[in-house]
């Protein structure tokens, strides 16, 4: 008697493999399926991210135009801007200090986990497609500009 393969499982595994290959090409490093987030996850010293509310994220994306930034929606309420790692000239301590005093923004630094959209899960979705990864400092500066305008209202 031969084993029965459930088509949905086989399709899901195929979709995960294809997605991992796509991420390998885009990020030039492997992803893994995290048991914590149940998502394909990236850990690399080459990438960082800025997480904020979807409302603030819309404003940040407009501030960054015409540049397209890879953006992931997390549960529709949070936007994650994926960036290149901070540059040596970036004053990371000042960036962290400035944004830590403004609620609703989280920085994911190189070497930390970045959970990505994963087949079979609707928790994370691409808002904008993968492409060029902007400098971390540019996205942080746009975030600071937006939060400064919000605070002055």
Descriptive terms for the model:
5-stranded antiparallel sheet; 3-stranded antiparallel sheet; alpha+beta; globular
What does this structure look like?
- With 153 residues, this protein is an alpha+beta fold.
- It has one domain (7-151).
- The chain has four helices and eight strands.
- It has helices at residues 7-27, 54-64, 92-100, 136-151, and strands at 31-33, 40-43, 47-53, 71-74, 78-84, 105-108, 113-115, 124-128.
- The strands form two sheets. The protein has a five-stranded antiparallel sheet with strand order 6-3-5-4-8. The protein has a three-stranded antiparallel sheet with strand order 1-2-7, with helices on one face.
- A hairpin with a 6-residue loop joins β1 and β2 (40-43).
- α2 packs across α4.
- The longest helix has 21 residues, at 7-27.
- The chain is globular and about 50 Å long.
- The termini are far apart.
- The mean pLDDT is 89.
Major sheet:
5 strands, antiparallel
Q: What is the overall shape?
A: globular
Task: Name the average pLDDT.
Answer: 89
Oligomer: single chain
Looking across the biggest beta sheet, what order are the strands in? 6-3-5-4-8
Termini Cα gap: 71 Å
* Strand elements, count: 8
Annotation field: number of helices: 4
Q: Helix proportion of residues, in percent?
A: 25-40%
Structural class: alpha+beta
Order of helices and strands: HEEEHEEHEEEH
Map the helices and strands.
Layout (H helix, E strand, L loop, with lengths): L6 H21 L3 E3 L6 E4 L3 E7 H11 L6 E4 L3 E7 L7 H9 L4 E4 L4 E3 L8 E5 L7 H16 L2
Antiparallel strand pairs: 1-2, 2-7, 3-5, 3-6, 4-5, 4-8
């Amino acid at each position: 008697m031969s084993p029965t393969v459930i088509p949905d499982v086989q399709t899901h595994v195929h979709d995960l493999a294809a997605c991992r290959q796509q991420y390998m090409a885009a990020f030039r490093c492997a992803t893994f399926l995290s048991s914590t987030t149940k998502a394909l996850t990236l850990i690399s010293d080459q990438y960082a991210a800025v997480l904020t509310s979807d409302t603030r994220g819309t404003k940040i994306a407009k501030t960054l135009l015409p540049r397209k930034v890879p953006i992931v929606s997390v549960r529709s309420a949070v936007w994650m801007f994926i960036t290149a790692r901070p540059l040596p000239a970036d004053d990371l301590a000042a960036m962290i200090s400035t944004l830590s005093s403004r609620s609703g923004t989280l920085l994911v630094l190189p070497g930390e986990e970045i959970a990505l959209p994963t087949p079979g899960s609707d928790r994370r979705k691409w808002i904008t497609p993968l492409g060029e990864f902007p400098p971390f400092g540019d996205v942080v500066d746009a975030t600071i500009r937006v939060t400064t305008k919000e605070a002055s209202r």
